[in-house]
Amino acid sequence: MRLVSKYWIIFAALSVAFLAIQATHFRYSISDENTYIYMAKTITEGQAPYKDFFYAHPPLHIYYLALFYLIFGLNILVLKATAVIPVIAAAGLIFWMLGKRQLWAEALLFTSIFYFAYDTMRFSTFAVWITLATFILVLAAVLAVEKKCTWAGAAAGFAGMAGFLSVAGAAAIGVYLFLADRKGAIRYMAAFAAVFIAANIALGLLLPGYFEDVLKYHLSKPSEGGNKGSVFVEMARRNPLLFAAVALFVFSGRKMRHAYLIPAAASLGLVGALILVSKVYGYYFLMALPFFAVLGAHGITSLVSRLSEDRVKQALLVSIGIIAVSGAVSAYYYYSNTYQDFYEAQQVADYVRANSGAGDAVFGDDSVTPLVAILAGRPVAPGYIDSNSLRWRSGLLGMNQTIREIGAGAARFVIVRRLNNGVGSFQFGPAYIDEFREFLKKCREALKINTSRGAEFQGSFFWHEFYVYDCSSQSH
Predict the structure, then answer these.
(1) Distant-in-sequence, close-in-space partners of 186: CB < 8 Å, separation ≥ 6
(2) Contact 241, 249 (CB under 8 A)
(3) What's the pTM?
(4) Which residues, in sequence order, are CB contacts of 470 under 8 Å at separation 6+?
(5) How do residues 89-147 score in pLDDT, each as one tens digit?
(6) Which of 125, 208, 201, 123 lies closest to 161 in space, CA to CA?
């Protein structure tokens, strides 16, 4: 018992270190999380997704976030923590699973590799659906390893209700169970169907907009497969230790147990889904990272175990040293990455509040506008909390109709974010659409904020610009 306690103390120390690193970015961000935070706010005011506003995912995460908003309001420390805590809980589940099998070296290696991979740190920062879905899918995998197949299937169903990407991992676990344990697979699939299929049918019947928001929207999005290769390459480049460790697992050539084959199946299912979907965002990979880390930890210990007995301890110390250096480098780059920090949020909100009435709505880039609206005490234009350009590019919304609504007074201010390199600029949200950029030329540029913050992209340095356009004259 004393040995077990010692390892759990180390796990707790690693978790505190991870949380402390994450806390360095507990501030306003340029991110989809602002859309979700505003939606959580509207839920606390009695509105419902799919009925009162567009929401592109199953509802579990948005109600999870709304619970914290109901209790704490716009407390950015708490709302950011809603993303980090599920990641720590997922790590704890896998640590427990490995520790139960007395694989304490692997448990510690897993925790260190997972927590301090650059993209684990980066993608755990934002209060979006992926971290909750990751935790629940990990729970399903651990329950499957423990041969609690009914509970595993139910957990997999709930993971799907946090994010549809989870279904790919859940299905891969089901396929593995079918090959390894037919009776367990039947219980798993029955429980999954009882939760996931029943919940989707019920939501579709109760809220007619549900299937359009979460299914038709994703199926209608234009294919942009050309960027997938670069996303996969960037993922490997940012996390070299993690992928090198996974390579060791692949080439270890040893007979595997459920504790590795189920994570391997989940990893393959998730990566396969990312290859097939029309558009891939980097943060989608977070769901696969804990499974990669399990495999990587086993790959390292498999290599070490092949050494002579007197070299095993040295090899483990070298491995720990490499992981520590890699983690420190990743933490430094994560800490230094201020690209998505929205320091200007209060400045923009103060301008909007000072130059508008309480009923004047705002509209614009979905990564910044909802946060500005909350800070300014102004509503987002009805129906446009999520103003991702894909809503128009998918054909589910007509840009001409939107322009008519904004021009008729649906919003007083339009907020635009650009990345500029002095030659050209990237625009986001509705301003990505040519017709809307033409419309903005008829509005008055009321506020412009240039920053020195930006990022290198394709050999050029881009910096942030924020604009507030006053479109009130269009309604006259």
Answers:
(1) none
(2) no
(3) 0.94
(4) 355, 412, 413, 443, 444, 446
(5) 999 999 999 999 999 989 999 999 999 999 999 999 999 999 999 999 999 999 999 99
(6) 201
